Amino acid sequence: MGLPARLLPILLLLWPLATDVAAQEPPAEEEAVARGRYLLHAAGCVTCHTAEAEDAVPLAGGRALQTPFGTFRTPNLTPDPETGLGGWSAAQFRAALREGLAPDGSPYYPAFPYPSYAGMTEADADDLFAYLQSLTPVRNAVPDHDLDFPFSLRPGLWAWRWLHFDAAPFAPDPEQGEAWNRGAYLVEHLGHCGECHTPRNFAGATEEARRLAGNPQGPEGKRVPNITPHQEDGIGAWDATDMTFFLETGFLPDGDVAGGAMAPVIKDSTSRLTAEDRAAIAAYLLALPPLPDE
Amino acid sequence: MRSVPLAVLTATLVALSGAALAADEPKNLVDYRSAVMRSLGGHAGAIAAIVKQQVSYDHVAAHAEAIAATAPAVRDVFPENSGPDDYAETDALPAIWENPEDFAEALEAFETAAAAFPAAAQSGDRAQILEAFQKLGGSCGACHEDFRAED
Lengths: 294, 151
Hints:
heterodimer; B: elongated
């Protein structure tokens, strides 16, 4: 700690006072950080914002995402002033997360799932920011994206946003119960399940009519399964317990284990949620309209 | 067993396994491997049904022992002539033979988790069983992620 020895008696004198103050005032900042840590898992930030190397520092960015549009490299979310979010304000973070806009006003590529995060509540965005700012800053300058023409032209994103981006915040459906609404928020916004499980059109926008009905061309060109409750093609044969157990452990009802891109999602995200949140996800998914594969 | 000298028994077994290997066609190797992997998945599915409390059988320990007993066989069932170039029906990826060290490491993690599982299963404590089962599942999934084709 490097505390000068002569300060110690003074500190010891002050200590009871300090703990009394702490006991009287709720540590609001700590609570925000704790809620933010949970939201980090619910929002599945860790997998993409951590490099592939085994010794990579979580959330320091640098993972390469291969897509049909080129290679994206995920940014550093630790509070390093030069290479991370060190100089950011909570308002800038909210704009990035919910509007897809960088602090300089330029638009992000939707490889960053801000079209899903747009529905996140302001309070959740702020808690997430509080958690990220509490991390140890890591200096990690991530190289630029490596995109094919014409996707390399960032101004094209304004047209894309105009056509495809809806910044509406999540609105609970009063006709539905609490679990369904919580599940909708987790699946459609924080968990951004549709980013992989919904097919995309030629412009890389999700096809809303086929919401969560699987993507034949998912990440790394792999097929992503249909998670609507269709009996043959989706998860119609699963019950809520099959669903929550899968999200907790990765085991499918037939004893097989999720591989591919879902394995890290289970490990970093769904296994870390509360049982109530997993049950809410199951309730929402099992109530979706069943869609067959195309 | 005393009537058969050990040396004779060993020689017979070696001769048998040698004869078996000589006859191993890629298709048969792949079919056998699929059966072995499905047997592991079958036991895991049975455990899952019990742990999920969808059925009330008291069989977790038996399934756990079956997995632990079968696990060391897995490293034997990926010989050189059983890849997708030898038999297209296999879901085994070429990475198994291209990165043998990574594959061996993934298998070792699986064997360790499988060997530890029966003790947890015998504890009868659901939280402990679930934790060990999750570890086991994680080792299956990690290997599938890099070395098994989707579908």
